[in-house]
């Protein structure tokens, strides 16, 4: 078996296509993910707004609002408003030209005017509406207290001017995770699924009707079980090293933290490697299709599994969990990505253990099925 392992390792290392899919492709796609998601956390852009101050309004009311608005419009990281003071006609023109997202009119009360045609700025318009509503409620409250309970006016003003938070940030996960890290979990799952190509390669090399090497092995006195197991162990080792390179690149170069519970992360990669290789071995042993047809079939199935795990559409696995959960239970890519997610976000190992056991069961079934199909194959002539 050692002889088989040695030359199987050399054989796979020379396979440039396999090295590309397991090393270069995840590195390239991971880099593109990083570039695509790196700008999503940029600071909030101030909301452009026109403010119209009515001349017949109370001067003290106007001055109070303007002082508060100028504070919100001060340049800095927490700037909320980009303010333009102007007349009503000028403000309407700015709104029509979409240079501002709304018009705040300050008279006896504060009112907001927005355009129904600016669908792309609905979030900013909602923020402005909340701001105006909160300001009017605060003014009404202070006015009511001043009229009926003037002794509490100072305390009321202090409570309204201080920012009070009843919440605090607390991470419920083992890491400060975000929704985009799940795409990197799925990227690693896809890399592990690509190990199916080496598994199919083992199967083809042991079928006499598909390769000259398979013909020689079928007439060789070496046990087919020993030959297949030797190849499988060798390919698993090489695949694991290739996957590990991509894993290190994502963690160190792209700085996507996946080092939480590192031993279990590595165990997940190894089990996923075995699952992907065994899946390819099983599909390669099925039927009498040509190598090209089997290769196309296995790529199509692998990409479908990755799609259903959320690589192309992040919420699809949640949708399947609600509508058809059995898909997530038998999809190797979904089990792999969910294992990474569990390690990063859950304190207990219940769901993670279920995923690893499921991957192990699938690996055993694929291996057993592939070996039986390969072993029972007979040829009239070679």
How does the overall form come out from the CA principal axes?
Answer: elongated
Provide the gyration radius in Å.
32 Å
Q: Order the strands across the largest sheet as they lie in space.
A: 2-1-3-4
Number of helices: 16
Number of strands: 4
Indicate the mean pLDDT. 80
Largest sheet, strands/sense/barrel: 4 strands, mixed
> What is the share of helical residues?
55-70%
Distance between the termini: 24 Å
Which structural class matches the secondary elements? mainly alpha
Assembly category = single chain
H/E topology pattern:
HHEHEHEEHHHHHHHHHHHH
Contiguous runs where pLDDT drops below 50 for at least 5 residues: 163-177
Approximate strand percentage: 5-15%
Topology:
Blueprint: H1 2-13, H2 16-37, E1 47-53, H3 59-72, E2 81-85, H4 88-96, E3 103-106, E4 110-113, H5 122-148, H6 153-161, H7 181-193, H8 196-204, H9 212-218, H10 224-253, H11 262-285, H12 291-309, H13 316-323, H14 326-330, H15 332-345, H16 350-375
Helix pairs in contact: 1-10, 2-7, 2-10, 5-6, 7-10, 7-11, 7-12, 7-15, 8-10, 8-11, 8-12, 10-11, 11-15, 11-16, 12-15, 15-16
At a glance:
This protein is mostly helical and about 375 residues long. The chain has helices at about 1-15, 15-35, 60-70, 90-95, 120-150, 155-160, 180-195, 195-205, 210-220, 225-255, 260-285, 290-310, 315-325, 325-330, 330-345, 350-375; strands spanning about 45-55, 80-85, 105, 110-115. The relative contact order is 0.11.
